[in-house]
């Protein structure tokens, strides 16, 4: 298991306890090189503990892990030379400029003054921050701060990059900037382990996703496969009049075809059903409702949420974890 041509991350049966709580309870992970792997779960599921253990920031008490071909327990210093880590909150000094922050990180990694300056300039250009390099970090937007934080994690051009909920608290535009940056890094050969609470984020970025609950992997699949486990995308219609529910259910059933039929919620005046072709289903249902003059308050497509995944896989909602 120490061949650098093998997986970027391989963990077998990782265990870690805090008091009477199993933060990691036999966690297994297998992440091919050059991919984004999502670690999906709510707060308290064990995501951050897993990242900290794999990044050598805490010792696990059982199991075995390799990162970039090196044994985490036996060669933590070697692992640290081949990884980058960006936590939930940007580790930046707001009293410094963007360039000064990167030069500081370079010196901390013992690059020396000249190499630190050159690397800072490279990273500012790579992450689209050259024009902002001379500005104080206090002037940066949320997306710019996160990109600068990612740049700092890439000082040593790591083989594996750990991103622990990198878009927490960011607005949609800033989240999109971070996603574009992650894609660019992977296209250049970096392997990314991404922890997130957002199924849509894993869907946009990850090749595969491991869902964890109470420190254990409860599912490992592609984003599409994971969505299919909970019924995939759904069309949802909210009618103006309760008496139209039956007619709307019939329309939805005709459009969505065989398989799981539509479900009706009388209290919410709502009809919903799984769909395979999202755009066609929405277009056809909307057209038929218009032609039959059925008044609706809302119609749209709903994607499975983290809560949907957890409810289906564990029998409890995500916030209970």
TrEMBL record:
GO cellular component: plasma membrane
Domain of life: Bacteria
Membrane topology: Peripheral membrane protein
Gene Ontology MF: a single term: ATP hydrolysis activity
Keyword Isomerase: no
Domain ABC transporter: 9-239
Keyword set, alphabetical order: Antibiotic resistance, ATP-binding, Cell membrane, Membrane, Nucleotide-binding, Translocase, Transport
Matching Pfam families: ABC_tran (PF00005), DrrA1-3_C (PF13732)
GO BP of this protein: daunorubicin transport; doxorubicin transport; response to antibiotic
Subcellular compartments: Cell membrane
InterPro entries xref list: AAA+_ATPase, ABC_transporter-like_ATP-bd, ABC_transporter-like_CS, ABC_transporter_ATP-binding, DrrA, DrrA1/2-like_C, P-loop_NTPase
UniProt record similarity statement: Belongs to the ABC transporter superfamily. Drug exporter-1 (DrugE1) (TC 3.A.1.105) family.
PANTHER family the UniProt entry points to: ABC TRANSPORTER ATP-BINDING PROTEIN, DOXORUBICIN RESISTANCE ATP-BINDING PROTEIN DRRA
NCBIfam families listed in its UniProt record: drrA (TIGR01188)
Name the record gives this protein: DUF4162 domain-containing protein
């Amino acid at each position: 298991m120490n061949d650098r041509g093998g997986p970027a991350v391989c963990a077998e049966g990782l265990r870690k306890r805090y008091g009477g709580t199993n933060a990691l309870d036999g966690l297994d992970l297998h992440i091919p090189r050059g991919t984004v792997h999502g670690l999906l779960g709510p707060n308290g599921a064990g995501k951050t503990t897993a990242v900290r253990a794999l990044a050598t920031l805490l010792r696990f008490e059982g199991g075995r892990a390799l990162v970039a071909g090196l044994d985490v327990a036996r060669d933590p210093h070697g692992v640290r030379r081949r990884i980058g880590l960006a936590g939930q909150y940007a580790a930046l000094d707001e009293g410094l400029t963007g360039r000064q922050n990167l030069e500081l990180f370079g010196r901390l990694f013992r690059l020396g003054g000249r190499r630190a300056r050159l690397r800072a300039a490279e990273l500012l250009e790579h992450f689209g921050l050259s024009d902002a390099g001379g500005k104080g970090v206090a002037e940066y937007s949320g997306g710019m701060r996160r990109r600068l934080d990612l740049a700092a994690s890439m000082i040593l051009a790591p083989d594996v990059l750990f991103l622990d909920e990198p878009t927490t608290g960011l607005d949609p535009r800033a989240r999109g900037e971070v996603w574009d940056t992650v894609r660019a890094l992977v296209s250049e050969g970096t392997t990314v382990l991404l922890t997130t609470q957002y199924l849509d984020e894993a869907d946009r970025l990850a090749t595969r996703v491991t869902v964890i609950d109470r420190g254990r992997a409860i599912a490992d699949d592609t984003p599409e496969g994971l969505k299919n486990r909970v019924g995939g995308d759904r069309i949802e219609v909210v009618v103006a009049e309760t008496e139209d529910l039956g007619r709307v259910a019939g329309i939805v059933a005709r459009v969505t075809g065989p398989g799981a039929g539509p479900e009706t919620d009388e209290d919410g005046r709502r009809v919903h059903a799984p769909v395979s072709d999202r755009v066609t289903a929405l277009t056809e249902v909307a057209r038929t409702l218009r032609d039959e003059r059925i008044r609706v308050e809302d119609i749209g497509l709903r994607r499975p949420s983290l809560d949907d995944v957890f409810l289906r896989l564990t029998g409890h909602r995500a916030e209970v974890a």
